[in-house]
Amino acid sequence: MSTPHDRWPDTGASRRRFPIDPALEALRQCGAPVGDSGFVDALGVALIHNSYLYENTRQLPGVTRGLLDALARLGGTFLQRHAAVEGLAWVPGDKPGPLSTEIGHIASTLPAWAARQPWIAESTAVGHGLVGEPLPNRVVADLFRRVVGLLCVLDLYDSATRLAGGLLSDARRTAVVHDPVTTLQATARAAPVTYAYEREGPDHQSTYHAVATDTRGRRTTGTGRSKKAAAHEAARKFVQRYYPAAAATVTAVRPAAQAREMLGYRDHTWTVDRIQRAFALPPTARPLLSQALIHSSWTYEHQSETARAGQRSNQLLGLVGSHVLEHENRLAVARRAVVERPDTLLVVTLPNDAYERACRWADLTSGLLLGAGQSVLGTSPEIKANVFQAVMAAVYLSKRRPATLQSEWPPAWRPAWKMIAPGRARALDDTTRLQRAASGLRLDIAFEFKSSGPSHQAVFVATAILTSPLLGDSVAVTGGGASGKTAAKHEVSRRVLDILASSASGIPDDGGHALNRLVLAQQAAILASNNPPVAAWAASKQFGLDLIQSPEKLLEWAGQTDRHLRKRSSPQLVAGLTNAFRRARYLADTREQVIDAELLQTLDAIRAVTEPAGLDRTLTDRIVRLCRLFRCMGADEPDTDLGHLVGEWTSFHRDRLALTGPMPAVTLTARERAVLDAAANIMLRSKALATARVFGERPLRMRFTGPTKPDLAHACALWSAVTWSGVMRPVPGGLEVEIAGLTLPLNPGPVSQAAFAAPHPSPDPFRRRVADVLHDIKNHASASRQASNAVAATPAGHHEQQADAHRHLERMQRLALSLTAVTSVPDAAAGGDVDFGPFLRQYARDLLTRLPDRVGLDTPATDTAAQAAIDERSLGLILDNLTANAVEAMASGGRIRMDWTVDEETAIIEVADDGPGIGADVVAALESGARIRTTKQGGSGIGLLSVESLLQRVGGQLAWIPSPVGTKWHVRLPLTAPTEGTDE
Questions:
Q1: pLDDT in tens, 707-742
Q2: Residue 593: C-alpha distances to residues 580, 623, 767, 770 (Å)
Q3: Which of 24, 572, 778, 899 makes a 20 to 30 Å CA pair with 552?
C-alpha cells in the first residue's frame, strides 16, 4: 500500500549501520506511526548529519542539504509558533517585547535541553571523524528541529506537539530569568559583576567555563559550549542564589481579562463581519478579530474606552501572526523541498511587503481603528503588514489552533494565500490532490475516522464528507482500512478521486455514485455564479463546455444532465448557465475578429484622408456597412418570424425582389433576421431584379440570386460573424444564408434551456456604442462631402464651405482615433499568451514615462511566473484605459497602485487610485450594459465597455471593487500555464 512517506529516499543502509531505535522509541511515546516503514525511512533522512551525507552522497540519492535545511527551519517555526501562542495569554499590556523574549527563550534553551535527550545523538548517522565524539549542542538542536519539521511535513502535528512538550515545559521552568546576564546587570548595580572565562578541549569541541564575581566577592560558575552560554549559566545561578526576588518577578503575570468587541464603528464592524464570514468563525471570535484591527495609536487616544472593553492594540497579535504565517510559509517550502530536493536552500524571513500586499488585497485597513495623529500620516507598509498578521493570528486562535491554516483557508482568499505561502507542490499525495479538486469545485471536505483492534495494531477507516455550501447537500465516501489516520485519509481520497474520474469524460449512468450527481449539480451552480471558471473548464472539458461548437450534441448532453440533476429549474440558474455557455462560445469561436479587423482597417483609411475630397463613396459605404453590423450585434430586439420579414420585403422592395416557393413558419432572432436582410440588400444594390427562395426548413436555407458583386465573399465573411447560428456564403449567381435550428425538448431542465439559448449571443453593449460612434462618423463624412462639393455663390462662401468641410473631417478623424484606441484584434503571431512578470514590469516602466508629475505609481511585484490567455496589445489597451481614467480623475494629484495575484486558475490585476471614485450611475450602467455617459472633453463613453468586451473574448471579467478611497478595478484573466512562485 502506498503511503505519504513513499517519496522519501531509502536510508536502509544507514539505518543498519546507525540504528535509530532510540529515536523510534521516543517518537512512539509521542504517537508517531513508528511501525510504518515509510515513516522510518523518512526519520532516517532527518537524522543524517552533514558529515555523513558528505561522505556517502552516492549511497544516499535524493538526500540533500537543501532538504535537511528545509526540515530544520520548519521545525524551528513550529516551536516558535507554539511558544508565541502559549505566551500570548500571560503577557501583560500590549507591548511585544516581553512576548518576543518568551519566544527567544525557547531558542536559547533548546541546545542545552536537546543535549540532555540521548536518543537524538544515539540515532544520528555521523561521518567517520565524529564517531565516538559528542555532538555540539547546536548540532543536536538542529537535528531535533529536523525531526519536528519532519512530523509537520507528514501532517503528524499531534506527535510534533507532544515531542516539543518537554522542551517547552523546561523552558517555562527556567523562564524566571529570560536574559540572566541583563537581569543581573540591572539588579546588581550596587555590586557590579564581572566575568572570567576558561576554555578547554579542541577547537571543534570546545567547552567554556565562566566565573561571575561581584565586588563583594560573591561568585558562581557556569559551563557551556560558548562564552555566551557559560556566562548565561553563571548569571542565572547568581540571580537565583543572591537575588531571588528578581527571579520571581516574571511569574507574577496574570492572564489578560476577557475582551469585548469594539462597537459603534461601522467600517470596523463591517470588516470584522467580512472576516468572520469568510473563515466561518464562531461569534466568540469577534472580540479577537476586533483586537486585530486596533492600532496602538487608537488605544492611546481612547484609553478609557479600550479599558472598558478589556481590549488592547494589535501589536501582540501581530507578533503571534508573524510566527503563524512564517510556519505556513516554511511548511510550503519544506513540502516543495521534499519533492524537488534542492542541493541548497536559500530561505529568508517572509518580507513585510508580502503581508502588506495581502492586507491590501483583503482590504483590511478599511476597518482599522487608527488614531487621529496616525491617520494624518497614513497607514505605512509596516502597519498594513502587522494588521494582516494580527488578523491571521485571530483566525488561527479562533479556529482552535489548527495544524495548518491551509485546510481552513476559504477559496475566495486563495490569492492572499499565494502571497504568504507561494509555490506549487509537485508529486502531490492523494489527499492533497483531492483537496485541490474539491477546492476547484468549491466543495468543503472533512474526514472522519473509526478504528478497530488493539492500539498497537489499530486499523483505521476514513470517511470523506464532501459538502456543497451552494447546494446545502453533502455526500460521504468511505475508504478501506489502513495502519494509521494519514494512510486511511489517503486511501479514501484515492477512492473519491477514482469516482470523480469515472464520469470525467461523460455523464454517469443511472447507477452512478451519488458523488457524481452532487458534482454535476455543483458545477451547474458554479457556472451560474458571478465568476465562473469558464476558460479553465472548457480547456479541461468539464460540464459539456467542450461541446459548445456542436449545438446538437450539447443539447443532447444537456438533456441527460438534467435527468441526473433531479432538481427544479430557476430563472437565475438558467440565466447563469446561458451566460457561461455563451462565454465558452466566445472563447471557441473567433469569427468576430474579422469584423474588428475590418473596423481597424476602415478607421486607418479614415485617418489617412487629408482632404474632404478623399472621402469617396467606397469609404462611406464601408462605414455604413460597419455601422449596420455593429448595430445588429448590439440590438436588444425581440424575436420575429420569417413571414413578418418577407412581408416587409414585399412592402419595401416591391417589383425588385421576387419571392418564390413556400415560406415556412420559422422563428428568427434579431441577428438572424439582420443577416437575411443584409443578404437581400446586397443583391438589390445593382437596381436589377433579384430573387429569394427557401430550399430547406431545418436548417433554414434561403438562396438569393442576382448580379454578383466584387466584394461578395468579404461581405459574406463579415455577416457570418454576427451570429453563431447563421452563415452567409457565396454561391453561383448569388449567395445563400443557412440558419441552424434546434428543437427544445418537452419540459426542458435548466441545462437544456441554457444549451438551447447559447447559440444566440446576447446584445453587446460595446458593439451598440461603437455603432453610435460610427453613425456620428458617417454623418460627419456626409456633411464634409456635401460642404466640399456644394457650389458657392461667392469666393467667401466657398472658403466658408471648405472650412466647414475640414471641420467635419477633423471631427470624424477624432472619433476614429478614439475608436482605434479601444479596439483590438487578438495577435495570433504572439501566441495569444502574456507572461505576466515581464509584461507588467515593462508596462510599469512605460507608464512611468507617460504619467504627469502630479501622479505617482506603485509598481506591482513581478517575481511570480504565470501566463494568461490574452495577447499583449489587448492587455495593454485594458490597462491603458483604466490608468488613463485614474489620471484624469486625480486632477490635483495622487497615486495609481497596480498589483496582481494568481491562484490555480485565475490571475487578478488590480488597478486602484486615490481619486474621488466613480459615480453609482457609471457602475450601474456598466453592470446593465447601458450607455455610459461621459463628462470628458471629446470623450465617447466607450472605454470601460471596450475593456469588458476585450475581456469577454478571452474568458475574463472586469469587476468594480468597493473602496473607501478612490476607484479600484479587478481585471480577472484565466491562466494558460501553471503558476510557479518563488518561495523566498
A1: 766 678 888 888 988 888 889 998 888 899 998 878
A2: 20, 17, 13, 15
A3: 572
Mean residue pLDDT of the chain comes to 81
Output the CA torsion sign for 900, 901, 907, 912.
Answer: negative
Distances (CA, A) of 912 to 245, 378, 585, 887, 896: 57, 17, 31, 11, 6
pLDDT reported for residue 387:
94
All cell numbers assigned to 286: 469577534
C-alpha 873/C-alpha 953 separation (Å) is 14
Q: For 829-840, write each residue's pLDDT tens digit.
A: 444 567 776 678
Closest alpha carbon to 480 in 2, 62, 856, 973 = 2
Asked if 971 contacts 878 with a C-beta cutoff of 8 angstroms, the reply is yes
The whole-number average pLDDT for the span 286-305 is 92
On whether both 275 and 225 belong to a single domain, the answer is no
Q: Do both 644 and 695 map to the same domain?
A: yes
Bridge partners of residue 461, in order along the sequence: 450, 481
Q: Are 50 and 73 in contact (CB under 8 A)?
A: no
- In a 13 Å sphere around the CA of 272, the CA atoms on its Cβ side amount to 27
User: Which has the closest alpha carbon to 241: 217, 219, 223?
Assistant: 219
- Establish how many alpha carbons lie within 13 A of residue 623's alpha carbon, considering only the half-sphere containing its beta carbon: 27
CA quadruple 841, 846, 851, 853: dihedral sign:
positive
DSSP state of 418: H
Per 3-state DSSP, the chain is made up of helix, strand and coil in percentages (nearest 5) of: 55, 15, 30
How many separate domains does the chain show? 6
Residue 198 falls inside a structural domain: yes
CATH label of the domain that carries residue 225: 3.30.160.20
What separation, in Å, do the N-terminal and C-terminal C-alpha atoms of the chain show? 35
pLDDT score of 982? 34
- How many angstroms separate the most distant Cα atoms in the chain? 128
| Contacts for 390 with CB less than 8 Å, ≥ 6 apart | 291, 292, 293, 314, 317, 318, 320, 321
Residue 703 per-residue DSSP state: E
Amino acid at 257: A
CA distance 153 to 349: 19
Assess contact for 422 and 983: CB atoms under 8 A.
yes
Q: What Å distances lie between residue 458 and 4, 33, 482, CA to CA?
A: 18, 11, 9
Question: Is position 732 within any domain?
Answer: yes
Query: Are 444 and 474 in the same domain?
Result: yes
Using alpha carbons, list the distances in angstroms from residue 838 to 202, 497, 834, 969. 54, 37, 9, 21
DSSP H helices, 20-156, are 21-28, 37-46, 50-55, 65-88, 96-115, 118-123, 137-153
Instruction: Please name which of 74, 80, 84 lies closest in space to residue 145, comparing C-alpha atoms.
Output: 74
pLDDT at residue 662, as a whole number: 79
pLDDT of residue 960: 84
| Short-list 469, 461, 415, 416, CA closest to 443 | 469
**CATH code: domain of residue 855:** 3.30.565.10
Q: 610 and 490, same structural domain?
A: no
Q: What's the gap between Cα 219 and its chain centre? A: 62
Cell of 489: 485519509
* Residue 260 burial (CB count, 10 A): 14
What nine digits make up the cell of 718?
463579415
Predicted model pTM: 0.53
Angle formed by the axes of helices 157-173 and 96-115, nearest 10°: 100
What angle is formed at CA 537 by the lines to CA 535 and CA 541, rounded to 5 degrees? 120
Q: What is the pLDDT of residues 165-189, one digit of tens each?
A: 888 777 766 554 456 777 787 778 7
DSSP for 12-33? Answer: HHHHHHS--HHHHHHHHTTT--
Q: Which residue has the cell 555566551?
A: 228
- Residue 404, strand partner residues: none
Which domain, by its residues, includes 864?
828-980
- Same domain? For 273 and 378 the reply is yes
